[in-house]
Design goal:
Elements (H helix, E strand, L loop, with lengths): L1 H20 L18 H11 L2 H7 L5 H11 L8 H17 L3 H6 L1 E3 L5 E3 H27 L6 H5 L5
Antiparallel strand pairs: 1-2
């Protein structure tokens, strides 16, 4: 049951992000509220791997997260306005594929290491990384869209509206 909850939560966040990505306009791609924070396009690029990066690392045989995640990023398709929906669809497919190899027992008992050196059970680690990262940065994207344009979006677009 926990497996289904975590998987569905990640997929819902990716669907919400995918929909928000369709609201971005070309003239708002470089919007950032101030220097030294991500722009809208940088947020989308980050979000395109935030839900699966750690899952891929924990299923790999690699011992160091940073080089593994950097390699993933280097080999990821370049996200553009045109291909963003397809990239988020591919992430949803990847989440389903990765969760197919995770058992309920793995979520409760398998120890995994975070890049910062601490450990946790796989289930808690998925919540602390994939789900929180997607949710937090989705909120940032939502706020940037509201600040940078006249697009009519509201609370349902952030939490539940995955389809137009």
């Amino acid at each position: 049951m926990l497996k289904q909850i975590l998987q569905e939560s990640i997929i819902k966040e990716l669907k919400l992000i995918k929909r928000l990505s369709t609201k971005v306009t070309a003239d708002s791609l470089d919007y950032r509220p101030k220097e030294n924070v991500r722009s809208i396009i940088e947020l989308l690029q980050y979000l395109s791997g935030a839900g699966t990066g750690m899952l891929l690392f924990w299923q790999s045989n690699e011992s160091e997260a940073r080089p593994f995640l950097m390699k993933l990023r280097e080999n990821a398709p370049v996200l553009t306005l045109e291909n963003a929906p397809a990239i988020f669809d591919a992430q949803i497919d990847l989440v389903n594929e990765l969760f197919a190899s995770i058992s309920e027992e793995d979520l409760a008992t398998k120890e995994v290491s975070y890049p910062w050196g601490t450990t946790d059970t796989l289930g808690k680690a998925i919540l602390e990384t994939s789900i929180k990262w997607l949710t937090g940065y989705k909120m940032q994207l939502f706020l940037y869209l509201k600040q940078s344009s006249d697009i009519a979006i509201s609370t349902p677009d952030l939490w539940r509206k995955t389809e137009d």
